[in-house]
Amino acid sequence: MSYSILIVDDSLPMRSVIKRTLKAAGYGSSEILEAANGQEALELMKNSWVDIVITDYNMPVMNGLDFIKTLKLNDLSKDIPVVVISTEGNESKIKEFMGSGAAGYITKPFTPEAIRDLIVNILGEADYEENFDDSAEDFDF
Amino acid sequence: MKKILMTALKTSISEVMETMFFLPIEFGKDATLAQCGMDKKNTMACRLTFTGDASGTLILLAPENLVAEMAENFMGESRDQLTSEYLSGTLTEMLNMVCGNALSKTNSKVPFELGIPEMMDTSEISEKEMFTIVETTESKMAVLLKMD
Hints:
The complex is a heterodimer. By secondary structure, chain A is of the alpha/beta class.
């Protein structure tokens, strides 16, 4: 099954790494959307359906926490699962995110397995054979 | 506080370099850029401010070749595919991960807040500054922690 996955991160390399991880995890046929901050993501979501959001915390214009709070206030987006990937490993900060409605939290540095396991847990197992992307062949899982 | 942070930073640099960039590292003796043979010309630099129980700035310098190697390992792309935006993004993301990871190891009462990492011109860096030297197999980078 293919999904629409939105990656929100101001770091172009980090978006690229997460995208590659998703492909290697079997979500290669999913539509991957990208935004550089929370505000840009909200604009994009006005016109695109999203099944799951993966967001950073520390971003310019609108950070990940304000972004999640805004999503959860809207009836149309409040049930979309949001996974946070952030350098912020402080326990109170993680609690704040989970309390605001995040479905999961991964701290950087992360392993690809951490992302795969959390996304699979939320979306369900991807059809690995059907979706396998050749460009991810050398990716270690 | 600076000593605690520096210890945490060293642990985080090792973790980030090995987990995200697949480059094992060792720490050399603290040195100026000239002493450790780093040339400002072909070097990229970035900085990140933080506030909390203690406030300061973390500065990271790395030769372009090392940044390119890190970007290749990080994204799995060949060097000819890497634009300058990817290179600077790799360096700032490295700094972001190191700083966030290190600050979370300090068990501070108040959570630290990180700024947005930004590229800086190496001419802004004094020749007299003493850096922590991080050595990879074939290259080295320099880290400077400045407390407010």
